[in-house]
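Lecture 7 notes: from sequence to structure.
We start with the chain below.
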Amino acid sequence: MKRRDYLCSITFVLSGCTELNNSGADTRGELDSWFWLQMESVNAVGIVERLYPRIDREPIKRVISEGNATDTTTRSPLVEPGSTLRSRYNGTVYALQSEKVRSSDGSYTTFTIEINPVDEQDENPNPIKYEDLSSVDRNKLASEGFESVTSEADLGYGIQLKYTPDQQNQSVLVPTLQKSVIEWESGVRGELTVVDSRELQETTYRYTAESLGELNEVGETMKNRYVFKLDNLTQRQQQIIQQAIESPNGFEIEKEQSEETYTPSEAVNRIYGRFASHTDKALEPEGNFQGYGEFLVKYQSQVYWATLRSDRTVFQTEK
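Predicted structure tokens for the same chain:
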């Protein structure tokens, strides 16, 4: 299995593998430092918690408890078909996958509707009684809590109602408001206004979940595969590493000189070279080293999560 497939932890709307950036470091855009290194001690469980999100929501809970489950939605799937989402749930890491089962034949339209009290200055609001609405409209409003309105305090906010094309043909409320004022049995009147509409299509996805092991077990596997040692350091290199560990801001060399005039010290250059020579161990990015990355390193018997940002144009590495 490729490392990228193994590590890729994808958010709810997946478009491939996103960059891991758990330290808060910005790994994209123009850098304001020549070199920045921060190292935080981490145990096996902490490694997994940084890499994989905790998901405690449907349909993921059903998938994990039942082994597979379907979900019909008008939104993007939690896991894009062909991708894998590794997540934490109840102390275990799971690999989640999905496949598209079917898409609805007809599209749906979601209408955003504001329901406000009627302006008292409107002498002829021309209301339609709630019970005279089509059954489709009554059911839609009832599902949002507007079956029985007894006070204007119940009004004054927006709702979203979803209609199929057939339901729109039966509606007196959408796609354009034919009746703008509804009067409930209590006598309360509300003015309805369509403020937005979007066409959507429902798609059904089937999700599956495979247990990869408990957090500590998975974390130990990660350590065995990706940790490399920072050893045989000079005194100055050790000072740099200690600052990267002990300082809340890590070790940083800010860009106070131009590229033409700045030359990194031998100590900094060699530390950079140690990380650059272990790109095969980088958690992210894989392969083509661009001067930044997330690593697991062992220093003086302790494992650290190391985040490196640097402008690689000023560094030299041994061939």
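Points to note: The helical segments are 3-7, 44-51, 60-66, 135-143, 165-170, 215-226, 235-246, 266-276. The chain is about 20% helix and 30% strand.
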